[in-house]
Amino acid sequence: MAKFNLNINGKERELDVDPTTPMLWVLRDHIKLVGTKYGCGIAQCGACTVHLDGNAVRSCQLPISSVGDKEITTIEGLSEKGDHPVQQAWLEVDVPQCGYCQAGQIMTASALLEKNPNPSDEEIETAMNGNICRCGTYTRIKKAVKIAANSINA
Amino acid sequence: MTLIKTKIGRRSFIRTSTLASGGLVLGFNWLASCKNKTEEEILAMPKEWFEMNSYLKIGDNGVVTITTPNPEFGQNIRTSMPMIVAEELGVDWKNVIVEQAPYHAEKYGMQFTGGSRGIMTRWEPLRMAGASARHVLIAAAAQAWQVPANEITTEDGMLYHKATEKSAGYGEMASAAAQITIPEDITLKDVKDFKIIGTSHKNVDAKSIITGEPMFGMDYQKEGMLIAMIVHPPAFGMTLKSMDAEAAKAMSGIKDVVAIKSFKDDYEKGGFDVNAFPEIVAVVGNSTWEVLQAKKKLNVEWQPFDSYTETINGFRGKQTRNVPSGLESSNSHEAKMAELAAKPGKIVRTDGNPKAAFKNAAKIIERSYSAPFLAHNCMEPLNAFAHVEGDKAQIAAPVQIPSLILPTLASSLGISAENIAMEMPRMGGGFGRKAYAHYVVEAAMISQKVKAPVKLVYTREDDMTNGIYRPSYHATYRAALDENNNLTALHVKAGGVPESPLFANRFPAGAIDNYMAEEWAIDSNITIGAFRAPRSNFMAGAEQSFLDEIAEASGKDPIQFRLDLLNRAKENPVGERNDYDAERYAGVLELLREKSDWSATPTNINRGISAYFCHNSYAAHVLDIRMDDGKPVVEKVVCAIDCGIVVNPDAAINMAEGAITDGIGNAFFGELPFIDGMPQKTNFHEYQMIRINDAPKEIEVHFVENEIPPTGMGEPPFPPIFGAVANALYKATGQRHYQQPFVTEKQIVG
Ligand code: FES
Ligand code: FES
């Protein structure tokens, strides 16, 4: 066990956990922020995607000991009222089916648009390729990313 | 207008209490659903609720709570089911709050999510729930205003009496309405007057999903809850021999390690009581990470189990299942399947004289198709929360058929079914897998043993290697053609490990004078079960690929070839047991031909067509493939569906898009091979799932417009996609594809 001070969604959190614990389980089990999902645990599905200083990372591969004072943003902290342009686009297109993968999809898409506000179809595919959706909502995801890009650029 | 008897659904109309005054105690689900609403809407919450029937409550200010009976796994019934109630009630959708029912058989009947039966089976009861509430509201207004009830009209939650210029909101009449007896007969709206049904309404849960609110079984939390994980045999055909848990128990945060036998030895299993491993081990601790570490320290010895026979009392009555001993491999399955395919099977249907027709044929075409086991791979791995205290149990778990796991829970826990309360949180996908709820029993038994609330979580590896898989299948088709290339006979022989996929009475049965269907099966200890459109998901691909080949051999356009057969089945059907409607089947093909602009294939595009009937609905696709450096790219899929009335069109389109994409993924890549009983894929680095770059660039979905009561939607568009992929790949590569998956190193495309 070791003590950590984390910055999660703009709030300071003090924790005492095994330093090898991945952020995914720190968030879900210890902080009770369960919007970040477990899908594979081996960096293959993207369900656990969060932002680390604005970059999309797989929280299942991110030991708490490696976070330091970097800022972590989860789906719960992406926007205050659920109105980030990507979230709004997701509502407009009504993307989700079961919804389990969608937090990860949205975190990947929002990090992409932060870096590249005007991605081509190919760039969207490359960025989103690490996020699996068993329900098969990919055509809607692509549409929503484009709508979000347009609203960011407007 | 349709007059229906409320008696049919009498049991669903039980009022839990007659509420003259005083609000109801509202549960967790209600609060959760409030979060979907804006602040203003929450402020507009009523002070009192009045219960109209088990499906709906009306607040004093006209806000309506509609209880949705079936568990949700992504098909959006939490929106479309309440829409049906709201339609007949005649309220403004903006004033509706959706609440998830807990398991309650007396109020809600079979809360079954599966078999594409949700909307179909709830259509009448839900309409009745809305219509009967509207009826008592009108009766209450008639009493209050002293006017005849038949002069009262309703619109958007308001009651009007034109002659006296009286009006009132539903909320004002709700208290009096709650006292009025529901009549014997209820008049339903005319389909033409629908305002909500048939118009797209957004997913009521979308906001919660995109903000990451706790809603899935996996998200369930309770004070003092422990985490449990399983350790199961590495191979099918094995069970627990012994374990040494000392090292694991000594790990930080670990509470206990227990052995679990989900079913009592003498328990008569139902059709969904499937479980691969008779006895497994569970590690229980404070947190997921600690339990994961302890799992690795566990020393367990496994041993092969002996073969056994069991009786299953399922939907099809009592059946015997032989479970052989031994460690099975895909290679030997394939060899055995080829062997049985070459022998006579069990004849299920014969029309005319197929033997003679084949003898007299000018040409015989024979082709065999096969497909491997598939894992469900729901994005949410299996999980269940359970808290067993003495003779009571509380369960919250993603389950498709809560009613069927209840007796098993009662038997395994030794407590009565009435003392088990079950909540049904949203499922992160189901696809059939969550109909087999052994994991709920495991969670409950663990909780009973460790005397604490427990959430059992399967790792992805546990989920993939402790499966209830889509079986491995094989089908051989033979066609006899005369000298004019007319199809004179068709023979299908199908089988699988461990069940046959055959539907003997489906198209093209009924369209061919001489027809024969045979089947066979091979026993196995690899557990199998429903997987999105069971059996159809293989047969459609095989049948539609074969028909494509016959159409080509006959020199006919593949759509016209099918339409000619359907015309025969319509005009002069062969046999009496054909289980499809040839006219509706032809209808989707005609719609598809028009919408896909079938006669004008774009350049560099290779088109495959396929159609199928299952789960009471008809679906057909045209799939366009472009080859890019030897790799197939799906440019576009055009889909036509006849599922009767479409309740929520955009949600139905979403589901069809999902079925198409999921189908392409499984057709291209899906397979779970076995060696010595061991699944050869354990996680997504090995099991290839379709990702965004392989998904179709564009999907277009069209519905046949009619006034037929709604039928299945979640499954029907899935099976035919396999045939559309195979037929488009043939056009693209010149090679027919007979073995699934189609895009592997074994079968280089192009
Ligand atoms: S859970 Fe982290 S990538 Fe799948
Ligand atoms: S919406 Fe179900 S996995 Fe993506």
From TrEMBL, chain A:
Keywords: 2Fe-2S, Iron, Iron-sulfur, Metal-binding, Oxidoreductase. The keyword Iron applies. This is (2Fe-2S)-binding protein. GO terms for molecular function: 2 iron, 2 sulfur cluster binding; metal ion binding; oxidoreductase activity. Residues 2-78 form the 2Fe-2S ferredoxin-type domain. InterPro entries: 2Fe-2S-bd, 2Fe-2S-bd_dom_sf, 2Fe-2S_ferredoxin-like_sf, 2Fe-2S_ferredoxin-type, 2Fe2S_fd_BS, Beta-grasp_dom_sf, Diverse_Oxidoreductases. Gene3D superfamilies: 3.10.20.30, [2Fe-2S]-binding domain (1.10.150.120). Coiled coil: none annotated. It comes from the Bacteria. The keyword Iron-sulfur applies.
From TrEMBL, chain B:
This is Xanthine dehydrogenase family protein molybdopterin-binding subunit. It comes from Maribacter algarum (ex Zhang et al. 2020). Signal peptide: none annotated. InterPro entries: Ald_Oxase/Xan_DH_a/b, Ald_Oxase/Xan_DH_a/b_sf, AldOxase/xan_DH_MoCoBD1, AldOxase/xan_DH_MoCoBD2, AldOxase/xan_DH_Mopterin-bd_sf, N-heterocyclic_Hydroxylase, OxRdtase_Mopterin-bd_su_IorB. Residues 211-306 form the Aldehyde oxidase/xanthine dehydrogenase a/b hammerhead domain. PROSITE patterns: PROKAR_LIPOPROTEIN (PS51257). One of its GO terms (molecular function) is oxidoreductase activity.
